[in-house]
Design a protein that fits this description.
By secondary structure, chain A is an all-beta fold. Chain A is built from no helices and ten strands. By secondary structure, chain B is an all-beta fold. Classes of the chains: A mainly beta, B mainly beta. Chains A and B meet through loops of A and strand 5 and strand 10 of B.
């Protein structure tokens, strides 16, 4: 079955850029699915960051849109997240997940294990 | 943005008892709602989508109901492995949004 695994630095400096990659195994990123990023600050609710289709189409959370870029690398079967101008408020566990094939099937299943990113000097 | 509100914040239940969790949307989301279970240190796990369809491998003691703005997740007979935090999520519109969670704890 499809499995996802996040990777990237666990500590990033304020005003810096967060770069994470999600490797997809057991299936193709070019399948008829959207792929998304969700984060969870300590003790807070889950927050959707954005989603991408293998063709490169994206949708972003308006609250983060000016700072977020999600991209896909079909040759590596992975997709990536970049978040710029970091502050302590961006400290969170970041998850990647597979979404459904359309707007109205956008639940998340499965999820990666998550990676904690701390923004601190 | 559609705001999702869950109640109660914490639910204390004895093993074997029934648990009823609520989720309210700030506007109609029809049946475009999912439920997730999250245990400490783990990623969320999909339980229900389409407001009432169990995901693959989810036990029948989990059931979802509702449409429009009011939704319910029911766990018919709580097992020890069910004590966790539960989140609802709407996918009617962008941005996708989650509720703040309901923690189900052992009474």
């Amino acid at each position: 079955q499809v499995q996802l695994q996040e990777s990237g630095p666990g500590l990033v400096k304020p005003s810096g850029t967060l770069s994470l990659t999600c490797a997809v195994s057991g299936g193709s990123i070019s399948s008829n699915n959207w792929w998304g990023w969700v984060r969870q600050p300590p003790g807070k609710r889950l927050e959707w960051i954005g989603e991408i289709y293998h063709s490169g189409g994206t949708n972003y959370n308006p609250s983060l849109k000016s700072r977020v870029t999600i991209s896909v690398d079909k040759s590596k079967n992975e997709f990536s997240l970049k978040l710029t101008s970091l502050t302590a408020a961006d400290t969170a566990v970041y998850y990647c997940a597979r979404q459904g094939v359309s707007r109205y099937t956008a639940w998340f299943d499965p999820w990666g294990q998550g990676t904690l990113v701390t923004v601190s000097s | 943005e559609i705001v999702m509100t869950q109640s109660p914040g914490t639910l204390s239940v004895s093993p074997g008892e029934r648990a009823t969790l609520s989720c309210r949307a700030s506007q109609s989301i029809r049946s475009n709602l999912a439920w997730y279970q999250q245990k400490p240190g783990q990623a969320p796990r999909l339980l229900i989508y389409g407001a009432s369809t169990r995901a693959t491998g989810i036990p029948a003691r989990f059931s979802g109901s509702g449409s429009g703005t009011e939704f319910t997740l029911t766990i018919s007979s709580l097992q020890s492995e069910d004590f966790a935090v539960y989140y609802c999520q709407q996918y009617e519109n962008w941005p996708r949004t989650f509720g703040q969670g309901t923690k189900v704890e052992i009474k």
